[in-house]
Amino acid sequence: MHIEIAAAPVPEFIAGPAARxxxxxxxxxDAQSGETFETTNPATGTxxxxxxxxxxxxxxxxxxxARRAFxxxxxxDxxxxxxxxxxxxxxxxxxxxxxxxxxxxxxDGGIPITVTRGMVADAAKTFRYYAGWPTKMTGTxxxxxxxxxxxTVREPVGVCAGIIPWNGPITMAAWKIAPxxxxxxxxxLKPAEQTPLTALRLAEIITxxxxxxxxxxxxxxxxxxxxxxxxxxxxxxxxSFTGSTATxxxxxxxxxxxxxxxxxxxxxxxxxxxxxxxxxxxxxRAAAAGFAMLTGQVCVAGTRILVHEAVHDEFAEELxxxxxxxxxxxxxxEDTLLGPVVSAAQFExxxxxxxxxxxxxxxxxxxxxEYDGPGYFVQPTVFTGVDNSMRLAREEIFGxxxxxxxxxxxxxxxxxxxDTDYGLAAAVATSNVSTAHxxxxxxxxxxxxxxxxxxxxxxxxxGGFKQSGIGRELGENSLDNFTELKSVFIRL
Length: 492
Ligand code: ADP
Known about the structure:
Number of strands: 19
Family: Belongs to the aldehyde dehydrogenase family.
Keywords: Oxidoreductase
Domain Aldehyde dehydrogenase: 28-488
Strand order of the largest sheet: 13-14-15-12-11-16-17
CATH architecture of the largest domain: 3-Layer(aba) Sandwich
Pfam family, one: Aldedh
Oligomer: single chain
CATH class of the largest domain: Alpha Beta
Structural class: alpha/beta
Bound molecules: adenosine-5'-diphosphate
Largest sheet: 7 strands, mixed
Organism: Streptomyces aureus
Strand content: 15-25%
CATH superfamily of the largest domain: Aldehyde Dehydrogenase, Chain A, domain 1
């Protein structure tokens, strides 16, 4: 199979021959080593732009800048109303540059333009949501002995680093930057080496909104260089990480030197339970989107579809029909729903799991075909005859590959669903209200969807049980992540 890729637009930001520098202390700067690396367009496999390859000395500079900016108080002690206004200006600036940011995101990550437009709009929404908080973060006055006055205040944590992955880079950048700034922190963002462009352009846009110098820094580079230096740095007070469970564990370990505050949003192998009383065509559509959207490169992807044996065949047929509607193609075509996976490495990884599934004895029921290059396109694929002990059912693939597993009764469904190291998301398709509530209670996951999949809202906590992470992001929860709570006792 072959996919035609039309000439894509080239934003001015990457039109020049020079490598894109990093943002440190309000200045655009090369890596101290002078090194750069290339980022690739996964739809064509060709180089897109080169960016500075930051390392430990650059992280040192960024930390020093963020510390100075934190301590001089220009941001932290700014009147909360003023902080709100800056965050609102950032949101407006994102909207004003929406098409350019969406274009950069689609070029760099291969995500369809119709999807990245929504992501950019959501990034603006994230800044707007957190813009509301600076004036509303109150403390308490506590009922203690009459001879003392006791109250609590929320204070910023200090220098906060965000280390983010390549799936939904602008979404992740907004989730890390907006609440950290709202709480009065200074920030160092390290985008993934596969997709550094929108973080850099976003930072450029943000610097034009009146944020004081050094409050936001962006260090581009690799995980084992820039990322590891951030995680181990004694001058970083907090790391907020989104990415793989293996890297999350490395970051947690590296951050122990100064007991950084660490929040981790990690992987998943989320179950989607299809009960026999479900609206089967609707459940199949939700399940298809649940595992295949963003070409399966979603931490909450519903990659274990647990289907009651009585409706297995009907469901599989409906699932095939739903997936047939998913147009794989050029990220810049308006009717494309699924673009390529992000990189050559990810392409090989996904293909290796197709081979693993076959070698484990599972059957390819839907998809499984290959596209010829040069882009990294994968056909959404569903395996049947899968046992939950197979690697196909246990390991996060991060591609559009799902395992269909049958169950006989609800207890067996719950047992299989919870039999995983992960606990990020789970879903149930049923028309029975009490089954819905009962399963919502029994499933060990940070979010449970009923008769829907992937729905999130900025006001809700997001994060995982078990090895899917530590802590919750979004909503009021991010305020806990980005503030320290202080108790003050005054003897009267
Ligand atoms: P993937 O393996 O799919 O690239 P990762 O979880 O490793 O996903 O990457 C997510 C982010 O973590 C990226 O920004 C990456 O550079 C960074 N990273 C990778 N390894 C480390 C590490 N040891 N320490 C800190 N950051 C890292």
